[in-house]
Structure prediction request, 185 residues.
Amino acid sequence: MKNIFFILTVLLLAIPSFAQQTEVKDTLTAKPLPDYKYDALAPSKAAFYSGILPGLGQIYNKKYWKAPIVWGGIGIGIYSYSFNQGKYTEYRNAYKDLLAGKELTGRLEGLDADRLIRAQKFHQRNRDLSALVSMGLYILNIVDANVDAHLKQFNVDDNLSLRPELQQNTIDNKYNMGLTLSYKF
Prediction:
């Protein structure tokens, strides 16, 4: 008798479960992803172009305003190198003439051997420094083109934002400055 009662109870409780089949609508819809083009060779192309002709990588990255800055920086370095090389040669030749017993003429007429040696060292040091600065700017030009090409492909949209925000402190009613990082899926 207990078995029959148990079976009837289970059957009666199971009948309403079949009646509650309702159609569930999915409220989540997938948005189509925007077309995102990633060119893995763009940074190496930009670096190669900047290596061939300084400023060309910046033009390839469509940062046209950076090219004259690169040209000006490297141009000033080359001009400074050339100027100091000319002065170094002038003082070196004057020192050689002084050692050979020739009379110095022109601007260098009143200089002795010690001053000519110091002038040579000064212009030699400035010439070498100008060469290092020019090489550094050349390398910086290549690195800038490469990094800019990498960052150009970085996905920046409204789903990821970092913005400043003011929040009022409830205890002392002062405003606190902070940054809010929002990431939306």
In short: The longest strand covers residues 160-168. The mean pLDDT is 84. Strands lie at 160-168, 175-183. Residues 18 and 24 are 15 Å apart (CA to CA).
